[in-house]
Amino acid sequence: MQTSIFDTPVERMSRTSDPATSKAAARAVKMRAGSHKVLLLREYAEVGEVGLIDESAARRARLDHTGYWKRCSELRSAGLIERTGVFRTAHTGMQQEVCAITNLGHEALGAVDAG
Question: How many CB atoms lie within 10 A of CB 113?
Answer without folding.
Answer: 9
